[in-house]
Amino acid sequence: MLRANAPSDVKPAIAGAVASTGESTRKTYSNGWREGTTIPAEYYLDAKHYNTDERYIAENLWLMADHVNRIPKAGDYFVFEFGRAESVIILRNTSGEIKAYHNVCRHRGSRLCRHREDPRPDDPRLSVLQLGSSGNTPVFRCPYHAWTYDLDGNLISAHNMQKDFDMAKNGLIPCHMRIAEGHIFLNFSREKKPPKFDTEEVEYLRKMGQKYGLADLKIAVRQYYPIKANWKLAIENFLECYHCGSSHRNLVTTHNWDDNLSPDQKARLLREMTTWACEEAKEKAGEAQGMGSGGSSWATEYSGELNPGFLTGSVDGKPVAPLLPRIKKWTHCTDLATTAHSTGYWQAYDDHVAVARFTPRAPEFTDCEIFWLVNPKAVEGKDYEPERVMSLWDITIREDIWIVENNHLGVTSRAYGPGRYAEHEGSPARFIKWYMDEVVKA
Predict the structure, then answer these.
(1) pTM surpassing 0.85?
(2) Which CATH superfamily is domain 64-187 in?
(3) Residue 225 and residue 240: Cα distance in Å, rounded?
(4) Distance of alpha carbon 53 from alpha carbon 222, whole angstroms
(5) Angle between the 386-411 and 231-238 helix axes, to the nearest 10 degrees?
(6) What would the CATH number be for the domain defined by 2-59+198-440?
(7) Residue 279 has pLDDT above 70, yes or no
(8) Distances from the Cα of 262 to the Cαs of 65, 132, 307, in angstroms?
(9) All structural domains of the chain with their residue ranges
(10) Rounded Cα distance, 267 and 77, in Å
(11) Does 284 have pLDDT greater than 60?
(12) What region, left, alpha or beta, does residue 261 occupy, with left being phi > 0 and alpha being psi -120 to 50 degrees?
């Protein structure tokens, strides 16, 4: 269930039809919510609604977890967390295959591996042994009763069990997994058959993957960004750039995404870009006109242009790494793709790709993690410095966290009421309409 689109509805070309709907023509729902406005506070704050959200996502969406190059060797693993309780071990087995298993012992349900936020007790007297949230191991041993599983999820040790106990029927439970362009996707449905993965939408990630060679790139650096806010607020923020001019100075200095420019400023910038912007971006912008109303598919191909003087997505516009293997010259282009509904986000440049994921964890908590991909032959300290590779989007996401957490605090006030989306907020408006129609079923 992947989609590709341009942010800010769309930076810069696609107008959001829902947001521009006239006051008199907007639909009113049974719970009093009106199409084209933000939702009542209860849908951001109440645990009962978050429970519904989590169940819907688990059954219907594919969540991007990471890149296969995070676990290059046999026995490499990491834990992916979703919601309040779901935990999956993603590993590479001895045959080089990527596997995914629920992080639950088949005996009495203990977690085999700790989560990121679960520190080991700092007490040398304690004899409990438990694997951390990532690392390398030949087996997974339960810290409770020492049931042990191999890298194919088979139970290989369970002492003092009854004679009729069948080891073969008590292996780890697989989690639905797919791999696209080197990226690992999980679905948490307990049904034997998961929702469709190879949809029309996945084609856009595959196109980006072919252009930039995503599957073969290496992870240069990663950073974890916990957000103390509801997942829908985080997604709404990332779906628009109405706020970019006032909140992201570095981002709009790099990208042509500043909606706050005056008509004269925009005209002057466009004149400067006629000899600078990539031809692909100009072609795609023309194709994209009028496609913002969404329909049944969220997919839109999009290429963007960097501002004059900027070669890549860096604070100063200068290269941060060698050109990616399939990029032969500096194009001044940037491409993006997202999953439905922007829980995964790719921003590609000529020399690196920034990949972000947003994962719901609790009513007032969302995981965000970004990793940056570079040429697999690039050497850290010689060809790139991690701090420079991550600089632009590290600043941007830290600004976004400030914005989103502040938004969440405001929504908790009794003075909050649904507000109308602006013309350039068509994507969050459509996201919220989808949410009310498909998740809440208002």
Answers:
(1) yes
(2) Rieske [2Fe-2S] iron-sulphur domain (2.102.10.10)
(3) 20
(4) 28
(5) 120
(6) 3.90.380.10
(7) no
(8) 40, 52, 16
(9) 2-59+198-440, 64-187
(10) 51
(11) no
(12) beta
